[in-house]
Amino acid sequence: MKLCVFDFDSTLMDGETIDHLAKAVGKEKEVRHITEQAMQGKLDFFEALRERVALLKGLPYQEAANICQNLPLMPGALELIAGLKQSGHKVIIFSGGFREATRHHARILGADAEFANFLHQKEGVLTGLVGGEMMTGDAKGKLLKRLQGLLGISKKDTVAVGDGANDLSMFAHATTKIAFCAKPLLKEAADHCIDTKDLRLILELV
To answer: What average pLDDT does this structure show over 60-76?
Structure first.
């Protein structure tokens, strides 16, 4: 059995969840700029996340939840996860984004579990605050190591797939490292690079 860990935004999902949310409050340009800088490793992930979520303050929570549940999956996502599950692999989603999106799409995809942050809301409105287990740049690597210990799965039998700088930490604990339509920083650390938006290509590598 192998453990296959996937980033969500711009990997399993075609785009960035927070960009979709920012569009609803007219802050898409500002948020997109910060996202791009963070994914290239030019900004601290924790600081960039807090700064972007602060721009969402005032958005009705239900509207945010609806946006998160109607995101476009990356081409081939359903087929990839189905293929991995048929082969007996455990499939986990790690996201520096939000559980409002990952929880819903993990069910659709058939993933075994998902770990992400959550948008804080009070009286049905986003406060601009965020919390969760994926708020720092090294969070994915730390959690992956804990999961490997819990499941009894070695680094040799771990596959990690991502696109941005905050995926580097999980690459450190995986023997098979796949950069999917990724930033240059992640490509340099990868064993395999896929530059076509078709997740089914990963089945040829696993």
So the answer is: 97
CA distances from 25 to 56, 79, 147, 206 (A): 7, 34, 37, 40
Integer Rg of the chain from CA: 16
Residue 72 carries which DSSP code?
P
Residue 206 pLDDT > 90: no
Per the CB < 8 A criterion, the answer to whether 115 and 92 are in contact is yes
pTM over 0.90: yes
Amino acid sitting at position 136: T
Cα–Cα distance measured from residue 146 to residue 168, given in angstroms and rounded to the nearest whole number = 16
Output 12 or 137, whichever has higher pLDDT: 12
Considering the chain, what percentage of its residues have pLDDT values greater than 90? Answer: 88
Q: Point out the residues that are catalytic.
A: 7, 9
Give the neighbor-by-neighbor strand order of the sheet with 176-180: 125-132, 113-122, 90-98, 3-7, 158-162, 176-180, 192-194
User: Where do the domains of the chain lie, and which CATH numbers do they carry?
Assistant: 3-204 (3.40.50.1000)
Residue 169, helix vs strand vs coil: helix
